[in-house]
Amino acid sequence: WPWRDVYVFLLILVRVGIVLFLFPFFNSRLIPVQCIVGLCLLLTALFFPVVNLGDTRLPTSAAGLFRLILSELTVGMVLGFLVQIFFEAVSMMGQVAGFQTGFSITNIIDPQNGVQVSILSNMASLVALALFLTLDGHHLFLRAIKESYEILPVGGLALKEEPLMELMNRAGEMFALSIKMGAPVIVGLLFLQAALGLLSKAIPQMNVMIVAFPLQIVLGLFFFGISLKVVQMVTEKYLAGLGPLLMNTMAWMKG
After folding, report:
1. Which residues of 166-191 are buried (b: 16+ CB within 10 A; e: fewer)?
2. End-to-end CA distance of the chain
3. What is the DSSP letter of 59?
4. In the chain, where do the E strands start and end?
5. Whether the predicted model's global pTM rises above the 0.70 cut
6. High-pLDDT (> 90) share of the chain, %
């Protein structure tokens, strides 16, 4: 069939492209769309010789091709979502730390997403991305995309309860994970506020606000540094389980 290779290349491009557009850093507004499209085509060309579709029957009608493209879009969105939620948890931790420290009034424009975020949130996201790349998380992710075709071939998608529940659980864990990573800042500044409250009661003539503001910033940045160490440990643990997580999710989505 002369059009089979074209269809295969297109379907691989759909899955790889949606994953890349959801992947942190590559979905940044700082990177021109032409560069991202070129990278998608390059990765597709690299995956094309190694992806084996076997005896998969490709549709001859436009409706059948549209269903396959929609299926590949869903698979790519799931793969990208499972990585994106971790970075969203780190960003949320930075937002909480910035609010507790007093940096919430000095928001800046996030160059990646084009929205206003706390300075600490932006810093935490960049640290998490640097750790992800340093620990070869991108290599692991590319390997998972390749192996996804072995576990979930083109046209093999079947939406079941298990993968949907897993995605909901992962989304719920994002909030708990952000609180765990930001616990040093939250707890440390909570005790600081309690101590300052007792001090204001013990010495009413003292202007606690003058002392509290610089002390809150110094201790907030100190505890935020501890939180970044927690982010490193969480990133290492997350990458250790990312491969099995992606493979299990693909297996659950198989028809």
Report:
1. bbeebeeebeebbebbbbbbbebbee
2. 26
3. P
4. 108-109, 116-117
5. yes
6. 0
For residue 118, the one-letter residue type is S
Residue 49 CB: number of other CB atoms within 10 A? Answer: 7
pLDDT at position 195 is 86
Q: What is the spatial distance between Cα 165 and Cα 160, in angstroms, rounded to a whole number?
A: 9
> What distance separates the 2 farthest-apart alpha carbons in the chain?
88
Q: Is the pLDDT of residue 121 over 60?
A: yes
pLDDT for position 113? 55
Could you tell me the two tokens for 33?
């769309």
Sequence-separated (6 or more) residues with CB below 8 Å from residue 154: 8, 11, 53, 56, 58, 68, 71, 72
User: Between 137-151 and 62-101, two packed helices, what is the crossing angle to 10 degrees?
Assistant: 150
Cβ count near 14 (within 10 Å): 21
Question: In this structure, which amino acid lies at residue 38?
Answer: G
Tokens of 207: 């202007």
Q: In this predicted model, which residue has the larger pLDDT, 53 or 183?
A: 183
The average pLDDT across 90-112 equals 73
The amino acid present at 241, given as its one-letter code, is: G
DSSP per residue, 240-251: HHHHHHHHHHHH
